[in-house]
Amino acid sequence: NADVSANAAISTSKISGAVTSIAGNGLGSVALLNTISNANLTPGNYDNITGLGQLTALNVNGTITLNGNTTIGSLSSPLIMELTDTAASFNVTVNAKNLYVGGSVGIGRTDTGTYRLLVAASSPVMQLLVSDNATGIAPALVYTRDTASAPQNGIGVQSLFQAKTTFGTGAIKNVAAIDGMFAWLGDAGNPNVEQGVLIFETGTGGTISEKMRLDQNGNLGLGTSAPSTKLEVAGTVSASALVINGPITHKVATITNAASPYTAGNETIIIADATSGAIAISLPAAASVPNRIYHIKKADSSANSVTIDPNGSESLDGALTKIISVQYNSVSIVSDGSNWWVF
Q1: Average pLDDT, the chain
Q2: At a CB cut-off of 8 Å and minimum separation 6, what does 267 contact?
Q3: Which of 2, 44, 137, 250 is 20 to 30 A from 56 in CA distance terms?
């Protein structure tokens, strides 16, 4: 066990056993310690440390300062650098413009696995502080996908949220994700036009999938990955209040005898042209579309009728069917969750 003091140039042939202490305060160079099993850094200032690339472990106890071009660790032989808080006041200061780590970094944990950075702590875990006097928005965390070839449609980066099924044990399951994706969309096939979308994923049992998308045009889709308006919802919308400052557009279906029997879907208005033959319109189960409203109109002058047929034993104003036989006559119906009513 040898002590290496300041400004000492030591070759491996001069060392027998482990280096127990590398003393600080202006150390110029510790050369060729590349086969030592471990080493301890004592408090002090260290300038331009080299030759520690193949140490099995480097233990730091106390406050140290690394100055200049200090190299610790190598890609060919990963170094375990352990900072142990055994002193009353413990700090590690790196006085350099850049800090390069060739392997993984664990803060609070050593089981980094395949992650390059693992931070483990009780809440809060990490703070990103942007400190300047500028105005506007400053980037605090930047995700970059650096590809070896030209960007491909659908490539991107993801913030993945996970949880363990049981505290401290159990499998780790995916619970949600936010994806930033490169998409051609409006300029299909043109990788020179940067178009980005945000995708929000949720799910159960560890399986997540897209539920909401904000595209490059500012269109928001819920239940659809291709929104064509500022808000497009593939499903039912509930609201305690709704204020609309502008015209309302309804989905209209125009049908003929060729479509009969026609099953009403997510349209609001059905225009039936029975010129070529009678038309039957089947309604969805009232329980599946509570509060759904349909406006149905017969457009032709023929004697052929338009029959509205509720699902199964459900009724329409107490009757099993409703018939429209006169041109331009119409009925408006609403589901109460059990049956249909004319109003």
Answers
A1: 78
A2: 250, 251, 252, 253, 294
A3: 44
